[in-house]
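Predicting holo structure, adenosine-5'-diphosphate bound.
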Amino acid sequence: MKKILFVTAEAHPLIKTGGLADVSGSLPKALAELGEDVRILIPNYQAIKCAEAVYFKSTVRIADAGRSVDVNLLETRLPDSNVIVWLVDFAEYFGLPGNPYVDASGEAWPNNAERFALLCRVAVEVAQNRSYLDWQADIVHCNDWQTGLVPALLSLESRRPATVFTIHNMAYQGVFEKSAFTALNLPNALWHMGGVEYNGWLSFLKGGLAYADRITTVSPTYADEIQTADYGYGLEGLLSYRKSVLSGIINGIDAEHWDPAADAYIAQAFDSKTLAKKLGNKTALQAQFALPVDKKIPLFALISRLVEQKGIDLILESLEDLLAEPLQFVLLGSGDKSFEQQLLAFAERYPNKMAVKIGYDEGLSHLIEAGADVFLMPSRFEPCGLNQIYSQRYGTIPIVRNTGGLADTVTDTLPESIANHTATGFVFNDASPGSFTEAVKRALLVYSLPKVWKQLQVNGMKKDYSWQESAKHYQALYQDI
Ligand code: ADP
Ligand code: GLC
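Done. Tokens:
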């Protein structure tokens, strides 16, 4: 049994903005089931929702920007598990309304460098057993830029646990002016080209990439892609230099939370043997979005952060053509205001074909997965992606671009893959409206062949997406270091 400190900026169901929360809420549980002693360390945001009791554990003194501060460590549990969660309680940084990264008006917190440097410094004290928790980590598992300074700071300790840094998304790097490095009083030994310096700026992400003993990312294909200029954001050189310690481990899903046979959020439970019941969800979804209730018409869906990564521009450019086809389209998401407005404008023009809900709605996201026929994920890049996996579990056929985890989890529908029962969706290559629309047309064609369509659904629903396999890969990695 290893002691693993899992440091993250979000974890479902405590706090979630995207897939990082899904992973942080389910991988530690899977590791605990394999016998590891995992503790999650996460900021005690004002918006956090702890279902279990919260206890005070200790107070630790931290060197913050130009001063020393006392930070409380609170303890709770991940619901339905024995995984202990330690909350970094420092109201000045985490006690205001907003989400982990932006304030209530949607602006990035102006003190994000200080906020996450504090999280990192607390992680170091906890990892080194200097925070009165009587627990010595063997491994510190860090996730994304918010935790990037942990491997960097730990590298300066003479005795320390091994470090793993998982990249969930290279597009977010935590880059700040050099003055932030100085203001944060970070050790000068870290400021060089092989350290946290990135073209004269401070990069939290680079701290993780340069100093962690092992680097992982959330799919094998993305692990290759980030070693190229198209996906590496200037860090491809460092990543290929470190490729002997870099690997891709595909995400699993919380198979209890995302189970069409036992999902409290959906209208009608179903599984691969009772697929006809999925229709009850389709009609509920159409009604909820005030679209004509019609069991026959193919219902397309998208749930996403509305940002460029997700290919929302491709959708917008293709929408006119798409809506000329006999289909309906529902969309749930929030993000870029210009994307939101353009999508809403389309829905207004095509009230019988398209409906949009701007916002974040967990229950509705489950009903959409259960009720839709087709799920769109034309991402420009996608480290792993979870919705295409949820879709397959719910008999909803994904249309995805051939990139990252989408390429690794969806099998294109071709004569061979139909013959050998592996086809689960539609995959296209170019990030162009033409290539995307082509895939939509292929899907519509197969939708008109109910037997083949049902085979795709069943193929997807029978795949094993649980964490068991992937958690074993992490376990092997921990063992190795
Ligand atoms: P990313 O982490 O890049 O946003 P993922 O596919 O890994 O992409 O994970 C996104 C997660 O966030 C999924 O669980 C998805 O259902 C959820 N999600 C995204 N937008 C919304 C929304 N508007 N309402 C509810 N859930 C959402
Ligand atoms: C990131 C990626 C997404 C991935 C998620 C969880 O947010 O954008 O592809 O599934 O992290 O690893």
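Residues 18-20, 22, 303-305, 332-334, 360-362, 365, 384-387 surround adenosine-5'-diphosphate (ligand 1) (CB under 6 Å).
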